């Protein structure tokens, strides 16, 4: 209905994504690779470990050059199952009405019998002319532009061309040119980058054989229950859109992915919010990719920020609004008895915030 996805019939890899609603397509190649982890040497003792990502080469190794595939088509879902190796597989999925491509990957146990620690990535390659720029979110909120081998406040001498260009990706990463934007949403925080123009990558698993001497005092080599190593499963959602309208899709879907509601069961005669959950998160969808988010929890009368004569439900409101909205129109199920503007942490009133002042080397 929204997308058509094409695969190479000989290698089994993703080859192209077509946006049917807007009538354009983008060649997209996706594969899994692994960076060979640095073990340190006499000249540089820094090894890749739990706290340090430091591959010993810039070019990663493909897990496989071909994937065995199996296609499943029903009225409810279309799936292509890819098997890259005994420890790496993926299911690509489209459902009716779904405007994105879902990639559910399973990686592990990572083999280390060759004595090499490995850091596994999923990489997407396109012909987009990105000029060394890519974009990642900041803790699920503002999206920041990243430039390869560049820092905005000082002249960078890049000594780590891979690790020095990795950034935290909490909910999404994307690349774009003037006409097309490719966005990948994550279901957990991962490291990500665009090491090559037109590409983006996300690290999905690591297994290392050396300690990086940063305090853990052991290698990142968890054996798991069977002693063979950990298996990790996760999801990436891939969206193809124009740069002007891409945020209308990736903003709400990123929130849905990382703040999906919890199903909580508790004993009792019937539903009771205080009994079922001490805290929950609700979102109210707004036009234009805007959003209002609410945290609701029980606040006792003794709490200094409660402002209540007796215990009751307190709510913290936040979000991104460009047009005036009144809280009464958003929360028709509640009776608002008081409203107080708080600091971002929700622990003190905004008027009580005291900003720290200090002298810097420049005197400002």
TrEMBL record:
GO cellular component, one term: lysosome
SUPFAM superfamilies tied to this protein: Galactose mutarotase-like
Domain (Glycosyl hydrolase family 38 C-terminal) ranges: 1-214
InterPro entries: Gal_mutarotase_sf_dom, Glyco_hydro_38_C, Glycosyl_Hydrlase_38
Biological-process GO terms, alphabetical: mannose metabolic process
Pfam families for the chain: Glyco_hydro_38C
GO MF entries: alpha-mannosidase activity; carbohydrate binding
Name of the protein in its database record: MA2B1 mannosidase
UniProt source species: Certhia brachydactyla (short-toed tree-creeper)
